[in-house]
Specification:
By secondary structure, this protein is of the alpha/beta class. The protein has one domain: TIM Barrel (Alpha-Beta Barrel). It is 41% helix and 15% strand. It is built from eleven helices and eight strands.
């Protein structure tokens, strides 16, 4: 991390977990544990939990995010949620292009870009996910793929709008598998993302963009991961559902 140049952010991605009542209980448990954090603390929760999460987080340093956003303002898109709806619900962040959205729900680099634009145009901060599969890594395509995905996601994003962009490098082979990239692999992947931003916007701008690591970061490996210069925090899955584990990761990013 380099807090002198960019924000450190620990963001929980709850995925399809927790009811509204469970959301209230978990956030109330988390609040005192992360109250002294020297990093931004975000919880991205299911749509049905947003109201409960926003209410529970009031008066604390925890900010609430959503897990997806549609690229249209309104229309015949059954089951989808617009950026304007999220803003009025009190959401500050939104995850875009998570590997599970790409794998199970047909997200493409093009729709990820459209959702990213919709989010930042509405004033949200987009946590944009990029990452390679194990096959792509073994074929030697990691750098090429990460740079391509990053540039595609940022198409038509201005330098000014980059202030509302966070990139999360999440190697697909390390999502929910228990397998974690080494600290060196995480730093390398994040470095490729930063290099792509530098190629598109210049090195000075790239140094200001927060790039998280998002592949099975947990209470045991967080210190080593966030110690790397290009790892500006994490997008946390399973560990964000346990208050104590999540707080350990927040403390690691607060050092």
């Amino acid at each position: 991390m380099n807090k002198a140049k960019r924000a450190a952010i620990i963001a929980g991605n709850w995925k399809m977990n927790k009811t509204p009542s469970e959301t209230t209980a978990l956030i109330n448990e988390m609040k005192p544990l992360v109250a002294d954090a020297d990093c931004k603390v975000v919880l991205c929760v299911p749509f049905v939990d947003i109201a409960a999460a926003v209410d529970a987080a009031k008066g604390s340093n925890i900010e609430i995010g959503a897990e997806n956003v549609h690229f249209k303002e309104s229309g015949a898109y059954t089951g989808e949620i617009s950026a304007k709806m999220l803003v009025e619900s009190g959401v500050k962040y939104v995850v875009v292009g998570h590997s599970e959205r790409r794998q199970y729900f047909g997200e493409t680099d093009q729709t990820v870009n459209l959702r990213t634009l919709a989010a930042v145009n509405a004033g949200l901060t987009a946590i944009v996910c990029v990452g390679e599969t194990l096959e792509q890594r073994e074929l030697g395509y990691t750098e090429t793929l990460l740079k391509y995905q990053t540039k595609m996601a940022l198409t038509n994003i201005t330098k000014e709008q980059l202030k509302n962009i966070v990139i999360a490098y999440e190697p697909v082979w390390a999502i929910g598998t228990g397998v974690t990239a080494t600290a060196e692999q995480a730093d390398e992947g994040n470095g490729y993302v930063r290099a792509a931003i530098a190629e598109a916007y210049g090195e000075d701008v790239a140094e200001t963009v927060t790039i998280q690591y998002g592949g099975s970061m947990n209470a045991k490996n967080c210190d080593e991961l966030v110690a790397k210069v290009n790892v500006d925090g994490g997008l946390i899955g399973g560990a964000s559902l346990k208050a104590e584990d999540f707080s350990v990761i927040v403390k690691a990013a607060s050092k």
